[in-house]
Amino acid sequence: MDRVFKLPSTTFIGEKEKALPLREILNRLEEAYCNNIGIEFMFINSLEQCNWIRQRMEPPNVTKMSPDQKRLILARLTRSTGFENFLAKKWSSEKRFGLEGCEILIPAMKQVIDVSTKLGVESIIMGMPHRGRLNVLANVCRKPLHQLFTQFAGLEAEDDGSGDVKYHLGTYIERLNRVTNKNIRLAVCANPSHLEAVDPVVQGKTRAEQFYRGDNEGKKVMSILLHGDAAFAGQGVVFETMHLSDLPAYTTHGTIHIVVNNQIGFTTDPRHSRSSAYCTDVARVVNAPIFHVNGDNPEAVMHVCNVAAEWRSTFHKDVVIDIVSYRRNGHNEVDEPMFTQPLMYQKIRKTKPVLEKYADQLIAEGVVTAEEVKDVRDKYEKICEDAYNQAKQETHIKYKDWLDSPWSGFFEGKDPLKMSTTGVVEETLVHIGKRFSSPPPNAAEFEIHKGLLRILKARMEMVEHRTVDWALAEAMAFGSLLKEGIHVRLSGEDVERGTFSHRHHVLHHQKVDKATYCALAHLYPDQAPYTVCNSSLSEYGVLGFEVGYSVTNPNALVLWEAQFGDFNNVAQCIIDQFISSGQAKWVRQSGIVLLQPHGMEGMGPEHSSARLERFLQMSSDDPDYMPPESPDYEVRQLHDCNWIVANCSSPASYFHILRRQIALPFRKPLILMTPKSLLRHPEAKSSFDDMKDGTAFRRVIPEEGVAAQNPGKVRKLVFCSGRVYYDLIKERRDRGLEGDIAVARLEQISPFPYDLIKAEVAKYPNAQLVWSQEEHKNQGSWSYIEPRFRTLLQNQKNIWAKSQSQGGSWFSQLFGGGKAPAPESDSDSETVPRTISYNGRATAASPATGSKAAHNKELKNLLDEFCVL
User: Fold this and answer.
1) Which helix (H) or strand (E) is 183 found in, with range?
2) Same fold flag, 426-598+647-678 and 700-867
3) What are phi and psi of 694, to 5 degrees?
4) Is residue 20 pLDDT above 90, yes or no?
């Protein structure tokens, strides 16, 4: 044991010593690896990175702190513990998901922030579960304590929205970091109880902030993600988010992950909650070093935090700090943990809190006195008491105080109901169309696929004939926004080419790897940047990322496209928790656009339906309330709804609705059912006349053919949306029924355009009203539109009855003058409210058939029924 051995170059246990006795070698290795810190890093396939870690972990006494550092740890630990004690004393029966058992988290986070700030970081975006959130807001972000305490008072909200529970809310703070004397911006993202759902949202927000700052290496903006041990191992979105970490269009250049390891998930112990040895094993897939550290050894925790922050700054890669601790109470403060973990909690009851242990240690070392410890504790308790008394003066909760990224200057000075125009001058349309239809400028050296040359030629011919298809309309919408300085980002599976090979925004050199050309990025010398990026094969993670991106800056069009609309079901958590209800819960607007290929075309159940009915069911407009008409009717409806759901049938509609996202004086999510067959349908074309200056999005496209010229003779008025329109008009034409059946298109389904539908219904007084859809009866729009039509028709009946009693015309009351079309008979049909009937597939459990023959039979039945008069 006393024999001296020469040390290899891959160890740093000797510091400057080149050789050591075997006994000392073992002692030093045990001190480094078998004490309060355990490190997993040998799987990293870089000798430089492995040696970098060894250099910081192996030398003797690396965790040793100076007296000043120890006093700072004690002060921070006192605040962390004091905050939880104060809440427990004042609100003993309230759920708060306290940090008792892992109070060291607060000093740990502050240490990471201190070191990162010293290394140049100016903005930190954090995501975390509910455990410890209030403490993080109070003692890491330094959110005013009285604002936190008002959350316990059960006050009404002063702002719009229904609000959320206190341990879901976020914040945004700019303050001076007293340790580094530098300004720092800290944001904690609001998130629901769906564990880890906030991870990709934080990453998207971080990436967006890096993008807008021009921080291409992530030196100024970084993210910190907090996790529970069971959720880190159990929630698949952790893996999805991890796999974005090195992708060029999604990387945030390294995230610091901190696991609050309670060694228990709600009531489930690790033997039943995961198959791997450690809860952090998921991080190994991206070569992230993992530091396990004893939460009851504050100095070891601080050392690990120093190393982690330096690692992220040096290598711009993910790193994990696993604080092995415990949970002193149950999952929340009213749970009884002894029901399920009796032996563990007997030990916890006998365990002294970390503050007591560390205070005793520092008193024994002579670093502080008992009086100093008491003085620090009493001072913080007084701060809490003063804030508590101040909170009593508050009368309302202000949710705007809890925004995680305020849009300064966006809403100020704007008329909240005035929308900019969406039409574009023809010269701009032609310029974008020609650029988008042309090969790269260096076409002689850039070899394009021959099939693409044909596509570009066909596009150029369309521009010359002043027409657009779906792909060209989209390019013109994007290009015109880029010209106006609006950043456009399109993300999702295979979006560069487009799942249906229709988009081709990125052209690839056929002989040179990585040589590409994107026409929309080179339209104008001073245009905004255009980002189009194929995502990983993830929906949950990537959609969350884009939501985070969209809330960072309102002056951007952020779009996520599902490869097929059905695939949004894997991202349902993000849709439900962040997109549908985000503004109501957190006063958090987002203009994100979800593009979802949709349509029954015999392609089977998983490639047909984006589940339109789900989005409509979550729309917040009241089916029994018909808003009064006003000049700003369209914008007011959009202002009051939670999101917009549309199923456009023409390229011009698509063009305008995308531009309307930016033209609005506020932001709302847009759910768009996009087509498959209509991408190349010869009739699904629009003229420049439908897009040029002076035109706008048409929420309803009325019948414009033969039937509209003699509305009194029309026997059936059919409303529909999306691609089924083309099936209907073809069948009507083939059967010679163009004067008998009128077909109107609902381009925007929600919020429901009562004003325009009312006009169309009144125009055809003798027509039977029908809603036609390609989806099954228990799917699609029927269950949404039927009660709203009922409300509208009942409202018309009431207006008619009132006008008759006053000797007036119901038509002039509805439309301000003019004559109603003459009814075909003398029967007083208006005394009974009209009804709307259904035309479409019967109910079904599956969204679509996979049999072409069965599909054709279903379609024939639909069209036969459509033609019955």
Assistant:
1) strand 182-188
2) yes
3) 100, -15
4) yes
245 phi/psi in degrees, rounded to 5: -65, -25
Domain positions in the chain = 4-57, 67-398, 426-598+647-678, 700-867
pLDDT of residue 793 exceeding 70: yes
Encode burial over 428-447: b for 16+ CB neighbours within 10 A, e otherwise. bbebbbebbbebbeeeeebe
Task: Give 9: exposed, middle or buried? Use CB within 10 Å, 0-12, 13-18, 19+.
Answer: exposed
For the segment 725-747, the average pLDDT, to the nearest whole number, is: 97
CA nearest to 472, candidates 662, 684, 648, 677: 684
Within 13 Å, how many C-alpha atoms sit on residue 301's CB side?
Answer: 28
Look at 830 and 99; give whichever has higher pLDDT. 99
What average pLDDT does range 218-232 have in this prediction? 96
Average pLDDT, the chain: 92
C-beta neighbour count of 857 within 10 angstroms: 12
Q: What is the DSSP letter of 553?
A: -
Asked if residue 294 lies in contact with residue 36, where contact means CB atoms within 8 angstroms, the answer is yes
Confidence tier at 157 by pLDDT (50, 70, 90): low
The predicted-structure confidence for 107-138, as pLDDT tens digits, reads as follows 999 999 999 999 999 999 999 998 889 999 99
Q: Which residue has the tokens 């399920």?
A: 340
- 215-231: average pLDDT: 96
Nearest-5° Cα angle at 531, 530 to 537: 160
What per-residue confidence (pLDDT) applies to 161? 58
* pLDDT at position 803: 58
Cβ-Cβ contacts under 8 Å for 110 (sequence gap 6 or more): 76, 139, 140
Specify the amino acid at residue 555: N
Question: Mean pLDDT throughout 173-201?
Answer: 90
Reported as a single tens digit per residue, the pLDDT across 366-375 is: 999 999 999 9
Token readout for 622 is 């009241």
CATH of the domain spanning 426-598+647-678: 3.40.50.12470
Q: Which CATH class is domain 700-867?
A: alpha beta
**Band of residue 810 on the pLDDT scale cut at 50, 70, 90:** very low
Please answer whether residues 192 and 235 qualify as being in contact, where contact means their C-beta atoms are separated by less than 8 angstroms. no
Q: In this model, does residue 816 exceed pLDDT 50?
A: no
| Per-residue pLDDT tens over the stretch 623-642 | 999 999 899 999 999 999 99
Assign residue 201 a region: left if phi > 0, alpha if psi is -120 to 50, beta otherwise?
alpha
Statement: residue 186 has pLDDT above 80? yes
H/E element, 221? strand 221-228
Return the DSSP state at 164: -
Residue 619 amino acid letter: S
121 near 348, Cβ under 8 Å? no
Distance CA 72, CA 68 (A): 6
List of long-range contacts for 231-234, beta carbons under 8 Å, 24+ apart: 231/129, 231/195, 231/196, 231/265, 232/196, 232/257, 232/259, 232/279, 232/280, 232/282, 233/273, 233/274, 233/276, 233/279, 233/280, 233/281, 233/282, 234/195, 234/265, 234/273, 234/274
Q: Where are the alpha helices (DSSP H) in 395-524?
A: 426-436, 450-464, 470-483
Per DSSP, what are the bridge partners of residue 837? 770
Strands 19-21 and 4-6: antiparallel
Beta bridge partners of 488: 530, 557
Please give the DSSP secondary-structure letter assigned to residue 577: I
H or E segment and range at residue 292: strand 290-294
CATH architecture for segment(s) 67-398: 3-Layer(aba) Sandwich (3.40)
